[in-house]
Amino acid sequence: MPVSSLHNGWRWDKANSRLDIYYRGTKVGHISASELELTQAFDCNGAADFAADVKFNLTITAGADGVGADGEQLTSGGAAAECDWAAAGSLTKFKELLDVRQDAAEVLKALVSVPVYDFRYRRSTPDEHVISTGDFDTTYTGVVAEDAPWLMHHKGRILNPVNSFGYLLLAVKGLFERIEALEANLKAT
């Protein structure tokens, strides 16, 4: 039976035992006992809840930069914020180099002064969104933002892995400088 070019809704496909989905007269997908398949663009202007795994066989574009590259993560600035792709790129061409740090001894002192805790992440509540890894059983060992704000990013709430590694490497260099100085003193005596 033909479908009107204005039809939005459903039509039972008896031959294939499935419910076909139509939008403005165009079939955009179907639902059967085991799958939901969308064959056209899907634009949801509201919530879409799924009670099973959802698999996308398509390209997800986000923001002006479109599709992310291997190793990037899809990120969001919060509710109603446009998603974008991000990663801590390390090639020189991705950076505006400002200076080579020469303060390894000071960084060593700063890192040594930061308390290190064992902790588990708390779950979000209806009144509070808790930023976490989503793993609430693992015992982690690390720092808190209030004790080391220079190791954080995203408004001081999230550990900055680039700074964490950079400061740790500077601290190792500080230790190396101290070891070399001690060894030089031992040889001199």
Report what the structure shows.
The chain has two domains: 1-56, no CATH class; 98-188, no CATH class. The protein is built from two helices and ten strands. The chain has helices at 104-112, 161-188, and strands spanning 9-13, 18-23, 26-31, 36-38, 73-75, 84-86, 117-119, 140-142, 152-153, 158-159. A hairpin with an 8-residue loop joins strand 5 and strand 6 (84-86). Helix 1 crosses helix 2. The longest helix is centred in the C-terminal third of the chain and has 28 residues, at 161-188. It starts with 8 loop residues before the first strand and ends with a helix.
What would a concise description of this structure say?
With 189 residues, the protein is of the alpha+beta class. The chain contains two helices and ten strands. The protein has two domains: 1-56, no CATH class; 98-188, no CATH class.
Q: Tell me, briefly, the overall form.
A: elongated
Helix content: 10-25%
How many independent structural domains? 2
Number of strands: 10
Structural class: alpha+beta
How big a fraction of the residues is strand? 15-25%
SSE arrangement, N to C = EEEEEEHEEEEH
Question: Taking strands numbered 1, 2, ... along the chain, how are they ordered across the largest sheet?
Answer: 1-2-3-4
The tally of helices reads 2
Radius of gyration: 27 Å
- N- to C-terminal distance: 101 Å
Which blocks of ≥5 consecutive residues have pLDDT under 50? none
Main beta sheet: 4 strands, antiparallel
- Give the overall pLDDT as a whole number: 84
